[in-house]
Amino acid sequence: MKTTTHNRRHFLKQAAGIALGSSTAYATTSGLQLANALVQPNDSYKALVCIFLFGGNDAFNMLVPTGDAEYAAYKASRQTLAIEQNTLLGLSSLSGSGAKLGFHPTMPHAQQLFNSGTLAVLTNVGALVEPVSKTNYQGNKSRLPPQLFSHNDQQTFLQSLQSSTRRNGWAGRAADAMQSMNINKKLSMNISLSGSNIWQSGNSVVPYSIDAAGIKELDNLNKKTSDARELSRVQIYQALLAQQQENVFQREYARTQTLAWDLAGEVKAALDAQAPLKTVFPSANPLATNLKMVAQMLSARSSLQVTRQTFFIGMGDFDTHGDQLRRHDTLLAQLSAALDAFYKATIELGIADQVTTFTASDFGRTLTSNGDGTDHGWGSHQMIMGGAIKGGEIYGTFPELIIGGKDDIGEGRIIPTTGIDQYAATLASWYGLPAGNFADVFPNLSRFNSVDLGFLKS
């Protein structure tokens, strides 16, 4: 059979992509033996689902004061970007300062989740190495994360919590400590639907990559095929991978490729064995499509022999320097509807209190308008959802939305009053990270007075 250069390149590219999705540190040679899988007690499973809002979500238009005095201050700061007061979707709980709040009008699902007690909001959280006051910031007396207001640097810091050049994240370091909890040592604890990411990368563990369509297998290399020519190709490729190689890189490639090839088939088989979800997910909503695949992976948890998992989904286009009102409306509507469908799916699967979903983002936006949008800010608000959430509550300190006010360091950039280490540590404590690993996983946590923010049930 003649193999063209194009086909060889396609094959190698696909093979490399599948290999990079595997967990290399915990490889074993045994199969999952799906038919004889040891089913875990249902109540022992827990999962964290991170939705990263790439670009910097304007949370000051996502959650808005509805009381007359507070709204007037908000409108004066936001100018042409202000959401009309009578369109805001009121929440059943006040902020810590007693302010009435409401969600953006395109977020009725989020409002319902909040008012029913399954969604909470953490206000004014952001990238901090230590607590920062306006006085200390202006006097250059505070330690700060690297390159504030830079997309790449802040995405890295929020996922890694480190100012150093170490390229791993807090979910990755947590998985280093907890991977042994899963019977299945071949499949990484960390599953990504958005490719490689720092958050799930540890010293030993790397994320296993899938996409909204599920598992990608190598073309024309189905081990269970009944086609004689394809079976011959399978046997030849297996023989090539099994050859003894002198070069360490060749040996590692062969080992990783063999593992990834086996794992792809086994994960696909586990997914194919599950009953279709009855929950309807919104169409033309990329986040909902990805969350549907997460739900399908959750349904296969027993077959895959896992008790702990994290999932990472990136949602883009939040860098709203221009055309913000139109673009942001659409993004928030998609986010709200996708969260609602996913929560309903966890109810269908009977694990709503075992799956905690949370948002993160590069940074907030400026209170000031640039005429058609906003620029890079600092503090922001994040949502947390699940049956284990003490929902229907506003956590953190809601900021003063006044340009030049006590929370504004300049140009409408709000100083966070809660650090990302605190946010992450609260999630990880519920997830089961041993106390002895907190110092390594959350390097800045000891500088903050509050370790547990209280938004999760014990």
Description of the structure:
The structure is a single chain. By secondary structure, this protein is of the alpha/beta class. It has one domain: Alkaline Phosphatase, subunit A. The protein is built from 13 helices and 12 strands. The strands form 2 sheets. Strands 1, 5, 6, 7, 8, 9, 10, 11 and 12 form a 9-stranded mixed sheet that branches. A 3-stranded antiparallel sheet has the order 2-4-3. Helix 1 packs across helix 9, helix 8 crosses helix 9 and helix 10 runs parallel beside helix 11. It is globular. The relative contact order is 0.21.
Q: Can you lay out the helices and strands and say which pair or pack?
A:
Layout: H1 5-20, E1 46-53, H2 59-62, E2 63-65, H3 68-78, E3 89-90, E4 101-103, H4 108-115, E5 119-126, H5 134-138, H6 151-160, H7 170-178, E6 190-192, E7 208-209, H8 228-242, H9 248-272, H10 286-299, E8 308-315, H11 324-348, E9 355-361, E10 380-385, E11 394-396, E12 418-419, H12 420-431, H13 438-441
Parallel strand pairs: 1-8, 1-9, 5-11, 5-12, 6-7, 6-8
Antiparallel strand pairs: 2-4, 3-4, 5-10, 9-10
Mean pLDDT across residues: 88
Q: Number of helical runs? A: 13
Give the topology string: H per helix, E per strand: HEHEHEEHEHHHEEHHHEHEEEEHH
- What percent of residues adopt helix (DSSP H or I)? 25-40%
Q: What is the CA-CA span between the terminal residues?
A: 61 Å
E-strand count: 12
Taking pLDDT < 50 over at least 5 consecutive residues as the criterion, the unreliable ranges are: 1-41
Tell me about the largest β-sheet: 9 strands, mixed
Q: Which structural class matches the secondary elements?
A: alpha/beta
- Beta percentage is 5-15%
- The CATH architecture category equals 3-Layer(aba) Sandwich
What's the CATH topology name? Alkaline Phosphatase, subunit A
- What's the structural domain tally? 1
What characteristic shape results from the CA principal axes? globular
CATH class: Alpha Beta
Radius of gyration: 23 Å
